[in-house]
Amino acid sequence: MSQTREQYTMGYGPAATAIMAVRTAQGHAAFFLPQLKPGMSVLDCGCGPGTITIGFAELVAPGQVVGTEIEDSHVALARANAAKRNVSNVRFEPADIYALPFDSASFDAVFISAVVGNLREPVRGLREAYRVLKPGGVIGIKEFDHGGDLLYPLDAALKQYNACYCRLRSENGHDPESGRKVGAFLLDAGFRNVKMSACYESMADPNALRGIAGAFAGLLSDGWGDAFKDRGWATNEDIREMSDAWLRFPETPGAFYAGAWVEVMAQKDGAS
């Protein structure tokens, strides 16, 4: 395998999990929902805590939905979330996107969110998605593109945080600007009828800003701060200033954050 477990799961601490846990199918995957019909089989690769996957299961029932994750703790959390919601037509399995444990042509639809940018070999991963799709099946991808993020005001500590964040992602084989490239990746993987659009997850409400700022500050204590220091990119004082800057950010008059995402739909050729 060309991608280590650590590279896949960088940032999978409590703060990152909290960010993912608030995402729903209706909110985060609205562009994909018109493709889903009752009775369909759906695969959600990199499902995190399963909140989006469970939404898919509710929509396609009695069809079956599978969520996969390389991180065992997320598989366990997703299973617990499904049990709480009493959703029985969904299951969660540990799996590597480079070697999905499913027969070819097993699913009517595949969804992937915030995974492609974490892969050293994105086309290889998408070819696996192509393989497990049925002829004529659809894929929906939602991918971040930090090159389009909006953050105001951006003081020196937050600038340093963003620079270190992107640098660490790149060191681990991640692409912080992967969203804009997904269409090309899909074409290389064999898909057709690629349709791309972009959107923002915008936050100006103080409560929403406190949530996202707290999560970003939390990443520092989840291990990102140590990684920055170990590489000589920041001092202890720098890390404190980054954390303090995030915690001050929601209280700053006029503060605004918007994360850029690219939404892509494509199809596997209908010929078997």
Can you walk me through this structure?
This protein has 10 helices and 8 strands. Strands 1, 2, 3, 4, 5, 6, 7 and 8 form an 8-stranded mixed beta sheet that branches. The two termini are 29 Å apart. Helices cover 42% and strands 22% of the residues. With 272 residues, the protein is an alpha/beta fold. 42% of the residues are buried. It has one domain: Rossmann fold (3-Layer(aba) Sandwich). The longest helix has 25 residues.
Kindly summarize this structure in a few lines.
Helix content is 42%, strand content 22%.
Supply the key terms:
globular; 42% helix; alpha/beta
Global structural class: alpha/beta
Oligomer: single chain
Q: What is the CATH first-level class name?
A: Alpha Beta
Radius of gyration: 19 Å
Q: Please give the domain count.
A: 1
User: Could you list the spans in which at least 5 consecutive residues all have pLDDT below 50?
Assistant: 1-12
